[in-house]
Specification:
about 150 residues, mainly alpha, 6 helices, about 0% strand
């Protein structure tokens, strides 16, 4: 963890780590809980596909038609961003205000860039699934339309 803190807080990473003491696991746990809460309160997407029963949904999850990784990535991003803000506030008090502020900004930018790369992969997967479903619908329409024209 100290190596990641060095990226943002430079030589003050030891002071920040010492000031945090053993509270980092509690901070991360609280941030994950808040991240889950924020995700389900504000970010749950509207599903385009409604399931009649739980077994249909479970079948789609087990066959990887429904991805839970993008939701998990969003929750982790919120949790890590909150954790970095708390660590930044500790750095501003324990080490140096300017170094803490600059370090927090740098680490937030790095975190955002990393999670954007992850979300690009999930976006590509969602678009491929959408195109596959669209192609299947179009091929069904062509097949049924061809039969109607012959009759």
């Amino acid at each position: 963890m100290e190596g990641f803190l060095r990226l943002g807080f430079f030589s003050m990473a030891e002071k920040v780590t010492k000031a945090l003491g053993g509270s980092l696991p509690y901070i991360i746990t609280g941030a994950v809980i808040v991240g889950i809460w924020v995700y389900f309160l504000f970010l749950v997407p509207r599903k385009s596909k409604r399931y009649d029963n739980f077994l249909d949904y479970l079948s789609d999850v087990l066959n990887f038609r429904v991805m839970i990784g993008s939701a998990l990535a969003k929750i982790l991003y919120i949790a890590f961003a909150l954790t970095l803000i708390i660590i930044g506030l500790v750095a501003m008090v324990a080490a140096n205000f300017l170094v803490g502020l600059i370090g927090t900004i740098i680490l937030q930018i790095v975190l955002r860039a990393l999670f954007e790369v992850v979300m690009v992969f999930f976006s590509i997967q969602e678009n491929v699934v959408f195109l596959r479903e669209k192609k299947e619908e179009d091929s069904k329409d062509l097949y049924y339309g061809y039969e109607e024209e012959e009759m």
